[in-house]
Design a protein that fits this description.
By secondary structure, the protein is of the alpha+beta class. It has a domain of 187 residues. It contains 8 helices and 6 strands, in the order H-H-H-E-E-E-E-E-H-H-H-H-H-E. Strand 2 and strand 3 form a beta hairpin.
Length: 269
């Protein structure tokens, strides 16, 4: 891009491009580690990767940091907070979660990272998700993004004391669902229940119930013959209704940044 001459790797042989491959492996491993430590499913990787990379840049070694070397404005001035840690924050004005008259102004939340200006300078804002947003969200490792939508708020004010021992409010539930037999059974039963609901939604709206087939009494033979004729008729209501099955949206996880909107959502639209 800059016109510099440099050595090129052998096409199709990743081992000859060790610098790039090693960096990718390092970031991928770091992202997975902090997600596991926070008790968050892998679908939140966009925020986890951003947090891991920025935390690496602001780490102070021998009195200096990559952040200062890049911007020449001193070391990072904000709070250094682990990904997924419990914080108390002042909700965004756009948040629907309002405080009562006699309630504290702050809300407990899960820390999701830092908002940066162009060039990599911290904007003075943090990404936080209200703890209540995770009610009803499955914390299984392989939960899809479309099933894990949360409102990610961009805020300026939060409570964090330097040197305090971090708490991870989602970790206990995450470990229960992923690391205990009781949690795995509970998740399996929940999936079976959701599959039954899905099958019910896929039935045509005019499909006869099983009990209707057994009805008829003395006219049962006539009703059966009539039903057989209707089934062979391509214009019958039952066959026409079969085309009305509900479509299940199976879009993959998408990440929507909040840079232009103040707040954002994570998950498929």
């Amino acid at each position: 891009m800059f016109g510099f001459s440099h050595r090129r790797s052998t096409p199709g042989v990743p081992a000859t491009n060790t610098l790039a491959e090693g960096t990718v492996q390092k970031i991928t491993g770091g992202t997975g580690t902090i997600s596991e430590n926070a008790g968050l499913p892998a679908c939140y990787w966009p925020f986890a990767a951003r947090h891991w990379c920025f935390a690496h840049c602001i780490e102070v070694k021998d009195g200096d940091s990559i952040y200062n070397k890049q911007l020449e404005r001193g070391n990072f001035p904000g709070h250094v907070i682990p990904f997924g840690a419990l914080v108390d924050f002042l909700p965004s004005p756009l948040s629907k979660e309002k405080s009562g008259k006699n309630e504290p102004d702050t809300r407990p939340g899960v820390f999701f990272g830092y908002h940066l200006d162009p060039g990599g300078r911290w904007s003075g804002q943090y990404y936080v998700v209200s703890l209540t947003a995770f009610i009803g969200i499955s914390l299984r490792r392989n939960t899809r993004g479309k099933d894990a939508k949360v409102h990610v708020q961009r805020v300026r004010e939060l409570v964090w004391r330097s040197g305090q021992v971090p708490e991870f409010p989602l970790k206990a539930r995450y470990d229960y669902l992923n690391r205990t037999i009781e949690g795995l059974i509970e998740d399996h039963e929940e999936k079976e229940k959701q599959e039954q609901i899905k099958v019910m939604h896929e039935l045509p709206p005019d499909a006869p119930a099983d009990a209707d087939v057994e009805l008829g009494g003395a006219d049962k033979g006539a009703d059966t013959e009539k039903g057989a004729t209707a089934k062979g008729d391509p214009t019958s209501d039952e066959q026409c209704g079969a085309g009305n099955n509900l479509d299940i949206d199976d879009d993959e996880f998408e990440f929507e940044d909040a840079d232009n909107h103040g707040d954002g959502h994570i998950g498929g639209g």
